[in-house]
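Recap from last week: sequence in, structure out.
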Amino acid sequence: MPMYVNKVEITDDAVFKEMQFHAAPSQEAARDEAAKALLIRELLRQEAIEQGLLSDEANLEAIDQCLTDLLEKEVVTPESTEETCRRYYDQNIERFHASETSNMPQPFESVKGRISDYLHTRSMRHGIQSYILDLASRSRIAGFDLTASL
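Predicted structure tokens:
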């Protein structure tokens, strides 16, 4: 069954071609992941065109770079402060044991960078998800429930 993002069709053939890039426990799960990826790509592509960042005739490489640029422009997250990292460390101290056999946690200073990176990545993922949901809410999507799969 074809899917649509606004008036752009995403064919079953496109989904089947995309499935190879989505390892999943079943063919149905791989199909859903492929469909979701194509829908998100199309939402972002249409937004990039609307913002004048991309032409309709752009090749795949240009599209990929433009979509990355669009996300970097639209999704802004705060940097983790030392206080935020310290709070995360204190609340999750068991994750920072020096080894599986030791109950001694690694010192905060030695894991602060990893914590900051983790918090930033988590914040970016949440921001991207929110941005995609916002784009989806302003679009007409048929043939797939994107909001249920995010």
